[in-house]
Design a protein that fits this description.
two-stranded parallel sheet, single chain, mainly alpha, Arc Repressor Mutant, subunit A
Length: about 90
């Protein structure tokens, strides 16, 4: 997905440091579309670029949310990065 919004989302997510997370809503807000958090999830679900750490984007309630490699893998990677995550 190469829309302007998608490119903003990818750029923001690339900047999330290891051991940190952002919510889908935070990414949407910083990308200029505060109500587009579901779109952020859809964009990241289609991402297979390993330079975009989409596993670091979580739901506002602290749960992991979706991941195109499966939710168990998302939690595993986040825990490996020392992120305290609700599963």
């Amino acid at each position: 997905m190469n829309t302007e919004f998608a490119q903003k989302v990818y750029a923001l997510v690339r900047k999330i440091p290891k051991g940190s997370t952002m919510t889908y809503k935070e990414v949407a807000e910083k990308a200029g579309k505060p109500k587009a958090y579901r779109a952020v999830g859809n964009i990241l679900n289609k991402n297979y670029d390993p330079t975009i750490p989409c596993h670091r984007v979580v739901r506002s309630d602290g749960t992991p949310g979706g991941y195109n490699r499966g939710p168990v893998e998302k939690v595993r990677i986040l825990r490996q990065e020392q992120v305290d995550i609700s599963s």
